[in-house]
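Readers of this paper often ask what the protein records in our data store actually look like. An entry from our holdings is shown next, in its original layout:
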Amino acid sequence: MSTCSIFHKIKLTTDVVVYQGSFLRQDIVVGFEDEAENIIQYLNEESKELDVISIVGMSSLGKTTLARKILRDPRIEYEFPTRLWVYVSQVYRVKDIFLSILRDLSWITEDMYDKTKREIAQTLRVRLEKEKFLIVLDDMWTTRAWDDLRDAFPMTNKMSKILITSRMINVAYHTNHRRQPHQLRFLRDEESWELLQLSIFGKLNNCLKDLEFPGKVIADMCDGLPLVIMLVGGVLAKTTSAREMKVIKSSWMKTKESMRRTLHMDRERRFEEIVMLSYNSLPSKLKPCFLYLEIFQKTLKSQLRD
């Protein structure tokens, strides 16, 4: 299996259900302020039943980052005492998701493991009926996924909301045909440059003058995709420890030329090439660690330590 496909597996196919809080890493967020405000406004609106709101966009556009930003917002924390994050992905097991939600809410009992998914869904639905909750269903790929999961959610609970992220517009309309999905845009050029600076230096206006031009060119070649910008930023950040400006600038120019060679490719192929650029910049001792991840099951939960 190629390195890119391993990266794709790690990123997209791990089922996780967690509380909002320390489990959600602090993403660098650029360009989503207006989008976040609009969705927070939707979430605070009154409705006649359980309301479903969707964020739609292509891979690497920042749907998950935006959803995390919203879930961490103090207004949302105040409004929704119960907040859950459910990572659905292409490969999911309905019963495991239901049990994970019950476990995270401390509602799990031993006999639950022997029940059918329909029985567990009914238990979950009855318990959630009494809660004011916001549940994020992240990375939903198919309409069937919604059909599989919706029985666990009390549609009569008008106090609560569900926020879905998906690449598929038909999934968004299937979950709620009465509400227009929020289609995420690409980052503008100035936003791309801002995010690249943050990912390299940790703050704005810290880029040396000699690096601004190649830096802006590199940012423009990232096609407004936040994940691509962050990957490239990680590559460039490793070069800033060099003492001589000549060495740093040479590394940036090499990165720029590597990206320029991908301009004729489609977005998916370009993304794979940039992942490889990031992989190749890893220290030799870390590359095997990355490749060893292929042996783990897709649904394995892992704890990370610095």
